[in-house]
Amino acid sequence: MTPAGGGDRFCCRNQFNRFAPSTAWGPCIDGRSYKSARGDIFACPHFLYNPPYPSGPGEARWIFPGVRADKPHMKCAAHSSGPLGSDPPAAPFFGGHLVSKIHPLAIIDPAAEIGRDVRIGPFCVIEAGVRIGDECQFESHVVVKAGTELGPRNHVFEGTVLGGVPQHARHGSDCGRLVIGAGNTIREHVTMHRGMHADSVTVVGDNNLIMVGVHFAHDCRIGNNAIFTNNAGLAGHVEVQDRAYVSGQVGVHQYCRIGRLAMVGGQAHVVKDIPPFVTVDGATTLVVGLNLVGLRRAGFSSEEIQQLKEAYRVIYRSGLSWKEILVQLKRDFQTGPAAEFHEFFMGGKRGFTPERRFPVGRPTLKLREAAEDEGPDFQALAG
Fold first, then answer.
1. Active-site residue (options: 218, 237, 248, 294)
2. pTM of the model
3. Hey, which end of the chain has fewer CB within 10 Å, N or C?
């Protein structure tokens, strides 16, 4: 790699780093580090020592693409390099020029691009072609596969695998990418797969909370500020819009969509699109009304909620045909949040989740009053 501003060129070959052409390297002295002709000890990837240069403020030495030895711990920037003792140029992808803390037991491919102030814990594996934004934090045993890009301030917990190949019998060797936005919390043992084909992308937006064991299959598209509870699973090509809430152990069929601010109850089996703003019961996977709690938390006014209620009655309780429902939604709700219903219903491939309503004339179970159990007839039967 040639520095943007000229000067020494630094590279990594197999298990040692060297300066070229300014420094001549001697033999490996302990299996991890090398001594230069000037007697300065530098390290192989992921092992750093402070060189005893008496050169004052400029004593930091760039010894590996993006790595310098001015602190007891490793620091890294996204493949920056520069003359001996100089500050590195701006990183080509994420900008900035320092400073990441990488545990010595992490394995980072030299072709990975790491932003500044990234923290990578022990036993993490970062493959070639990965791009990691500033201020990301990886706990131990995180695997980030080739073709994965993360924006800034993502926090990834133990055992997570990002960018795996699709779980599909006919996936090719040339898969797509996984692109993750900013500020996401990705808890333990989450799996996210790349797009199925070379030109396809699995997209995760910003500020999502993704809890333990969640799975996003190939070509999913996740919005912003959504919440996925433990062990929820999305099949391929699923779309989840902003601020949706997917509860624990929910399974979502491929090509389904979950609308904005929808709430999906635990263990639901989602096989049709779920409209925005509604609540789906986990036991029946049927709509049971608007997500009023979520709407209030999102700052919806009472007027906007009333408009959504009116549109909800048109959709589920008017008795109109589907074509008539679409016509009325388009005519009566051209502005405000209720206008999203018509736009949502014009797309989709799986149909739409119906409302849970008991059929007319269904018998009900009459509960006995406690006083009835104290009467003489009850006592005679019991005796």
1. 218
2. 0.73
3. C
